[in-house]
């Protein structure tokens, strides 16, 4: 967990992780695991990504055969702002709670 000071001097917590994508792990699976880690939920309790984006498109854009190694996708799911990068870095910013 990383703590940042926002522009309004409020402390903001964000969860930053790196997840390897590869033959046995898709970007979608890595994102679900990162949200799970950041929120303390079981991966099976994380809201369906398909409600906010196409998981196949996420895998195609961020996967090893994606269009560019600098690609990134940002979206909100389960009250978390998520940015996933093609290099495997995933940033999860939980919304709500005491640090919203």
UniProtKB/TrEMBL annotation:
It comes from the Archaea. Pfam families: HalOD1. InterPro entries: HalOD1 (IPR040624). Residues 24-93 form the Halobacterial output domain. This is HalOD1 output domain-containing protein. It comes from Halobacterium litoreum.
């Amino acid at each position: 967990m990383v703590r940042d000071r926002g522009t309004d001097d409020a402390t903001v917590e964000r969860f930053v992780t790196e997840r390897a994508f590869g033959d046995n792990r898709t970007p979608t699976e890595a994102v679900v695991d990162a949200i799970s880690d950041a929120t303390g939920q079981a991966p099976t309790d994380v809201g369906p990504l398909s409600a906010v984006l196409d998981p196949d498109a996420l895998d195609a854009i961020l996967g090893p055969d994606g269009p560019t190694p600098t690609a990134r996708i940002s979206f909100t799911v389960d009250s978390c702002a998520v940015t996933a990068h093609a290099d495997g870095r995933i940033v999860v910013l939980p919304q709500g709670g005491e640090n919203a």
